[in-house]
Amino acid sequence: MVSATQSAVSSAKVMQPSSLSADSVLNFARGDPTMYRAYWEKLGDRCTVVISGKDLMSYFSDAGNLCWFLMPELDRAIRRLHRAVGNAEVGEDRFIVVGTGSTQLFQAALYALTHTDKPDDEILPTSVVAAAPFYSSYPEETDFQRSKLYKWAGDAYSYEGEGAYIEVVTSPNNPDGAIREAVVNREGGKLIHDLAYYWPQYTPITRKADHDIMLFTFSKATGHAGTRIGWAIVKDKEIAMKMVKFMELSSIGVSKESQFRAAKILEVISEDCLNPEPNKVVNFFEYGQVVMSERWEKLREAVKASGAFSLPKYTQNFCIFTGKDTDSNPAFAWLKSKEGLNCDDLLREHKIVTRGGKNFGVCPSLTRISMLSPDEEFNLFVERLAAIKGSNSNGSTNY
Amino acid sequence: MVSATQSAVSSAKVMQPSSLSADSVLNFARGDPTMYRAYWEKLGDRCTVVISGKDLMSYFSDAGNLCWFLMPELDRAIRRLHRAVGNAEVGEDRFIVVGTGSTQLFQAALYALTHTDKPDDEILPTSVVAAAPFYSSYPEETDFQRSKLYKWAGDAYSYEGEGAYIEVVTSPNNPDGAIREAVVNREGGKLIHDLAYYWPQYTPITRKADHDIMLFTFSKATGHAGTRIGWAIVKDKEIAMKMVKFMELSSIGVSKESQFRAAKILEVISEDCLNPEPNKVVNFFEYGQVVMSERWEKLREAVKASGAFSLPKYTQNFCIFTGKDTDSNPAFAWLKSKEGLNCDDLLREHKIVTRGGKNFGVCPSLTRISMLSPDEEFNLFVERLAAIKGSNSNGSTNY
């Protein structure tokens, strides 16, 4: 399997966003959410943080808290935002664990769910599964340390192993935007819910998610990927403690500068959601929804003009955040070659780099395309896509 | 074994630095370097960073660099500082890999040195050793993931295993401040040099260190532990690439806010070292040296007054940074009970929490005491220490 991260990184090296031309290679393999930059620019100084040399020096943020490296202002900001959006249960009995992105927290959750004091030769590794198509980095993130505690066991739909397993439920799903539930549902199973994209700009918020371990990430929520802040909302105290232990051993906590800034930005978003004023800009999620919706419209037009591809169809749902029926506008487009061609290869011929279906555990006629690139790149992409003609171009654009 | 991190964390919870009294429990188990705060306060706005909502959004810092998430300004600042201090070789052919503290980089180095494409059942785990007394977190950091690639194998002095091994060389050593070299020296051995304390405030800089993998950390260099920035200087390109790969899989890079701030602070230090001006405050290392030297003097006086303890003796050496013969003033005191009592227990009876010898692979008559606590705590500590009387109090204070 091609390493998804590696292919994204190496392809990033060939792209020069500042000098786009008809010949430029466009990288849509990675989900770098830089398109939200325009919004944060509009907000001017409202989200600015100032940190002097003497600030944020100690390892400790809140020694009395179970998660001793979590800054109290970030804890508050996370809970307030979830309450404002209505997308996750964050009652006083839930524990927040902060991580260096949700990537680190995914590994902390695997550790917490499989930790044992047994000697090595008595350990049976727990199987880790996810329904295909699954996020392309799960297999490698699970296996790269060669842990005796857990191992990647592939597609949850075809999982037939005995004993302990962990199912990762990604909803909305990366790559295809589908709303997901657990599929194995056997005794002894444990669940990690990756809710990175369960925000109003991507999908209607239909209910307050309330699962054992829920992962969120600042990068997909607001676009600040470089900040590397993720958080887990955890029901069970023992599991939360083990996740904190993982974070201690893995990196002795999480950057305070990043926590401080994330807290500030999340507070501004919550404030604008809860206390809108006529002369303020729209809140971040409304903005995101408009931008994503425009992009999806352009993409669907290009797919129609081409005739060579199809896209998933999403049904409208009532969104409790916006208070109206709302479309899904996923962060990725899951594009299919109608003729069953290798879709990633086909697009690379047109200098569009995507992440092919095989990375996600499915066939190569599908490929994943980031919908979060800068405007200029996105517009060039849809232009090129529309110009790709299939040998049979009169089919439906949905499947 | 008591978890060193856990004991530091749980003991931190009982300390209330703002309300110290004769009854207060003093936590000297952890190495939280908050005592440098006074210096950074003196510098006023010179190290202040301002980050607006639109800044530092992308995952990528320098897509053309091997370490694609390393900010170019931090790369430059690290190299400039090492050149100013003379403590490590950072020629153009050396690779810098940034991490979430040197803790994460230690694990990245283990991964890079043992990575293989072999199937699980063909892997022989590489032994990881360090000469006792060794840093108390190495065993747990090595083993917590239960990797098939490597395993903790204890004291390097007594290591008799066959085949591949990794020796961690910590110099100056944590906990005892000793200058160290590799002790196993067998074919097939690989080395990780942990040089966290190889800075002029702790030890004379006697030569430019030049090893395969050298780890440094911002927290011990400048006192900014909460920033979670460490860096590795790596000779071999393949090893550097694997360490970068580890960082990608572990946390998709490192906080940009932290990198940005670390770059700023390291630049200010370098500038003050290279271009001193009469009306400027002394450079950070000179300040650190004075403070550490005063503390060691106070500690030695207290140990003498008590009579129940002894401390290691360090020889003066010519420091190429200061240009004169200089004492060692380690970040930790490695205190011994002259009567062979459990030193950690003895101090806990006097409400001084330390980290006992067993955590470092040696006997409990020794214990480690942080020399980096706030002034008020340090002063109360030496006062209490001086008052502890042994049954025989006329011996030497050095061993």
UniProtKB/TrEMBL annotation, chains A, B:
<dbReference type="InterPro" id="IPR037029">
    <property type="entry name" value="Alliinase_N_sf"/>
</dbReference>
<dbReference type="InterPro" id="IPR050478">
    <property type="entry name" value="Ethylene_sulfur-biosynth"/>
</dbReference>
<dbReference type="InterPro" id="IPR015421">
    <property type="entry name" value="PyrdxlP-dep_Trfase_major"/>
</dbReference>
<keyword id="KW-0663">Pyridoxal phosphate</keyword>
<dbReference type="GO" id="GO:0008483">
    <property type="term" value="F:transaminase activity"/>
</dbReference>
<dbReference type="InterPro" id="IPR006948">
    <property type="entry name" value="Alliinase_C"/>
</dbReference>
<comment type="similarity">
    <text>Belongs to the alliinase family.</text>
</comment>
<keyword id="KW-0808">Transferase</keyword>
<protein>
    <submittedName>
        <fullName>EGF-like, alliinase</fullName>
    </submittedName>
</protein>
<dbReference type="InterPro" id="IPR015422">
    <property type="entry name" value="PyrdxlP-dep_Trfase_small"/>
</dbReference>
<keyword id="KW-0032">Aminotransferase</keyword>
<dbReference type="GO" id="GO:0016846">
    <property type="term" value="F:carbon-sulfur lyase activity"/>
</dbReference>
<dbReference type="InterPro" id="IPR015424">
    <property type="entry name" value="PyrdxlP-dep_Trfase"/>
</dbReference>
<dbReference type="GO" id="GO:0006520">
    <property type="term" value="P:amino acid metabolic process"/>
</dbReference>
<feature type="domain" description="Alliinase C-terminal">
    <location>
        <begin position="27"/>
        <end position="388"/>
    </location>
</feature>
<dbReference type="Pfam" id="PF04864">
    <property type="entry name" value="Alliinase_C"/>
</dbReference>
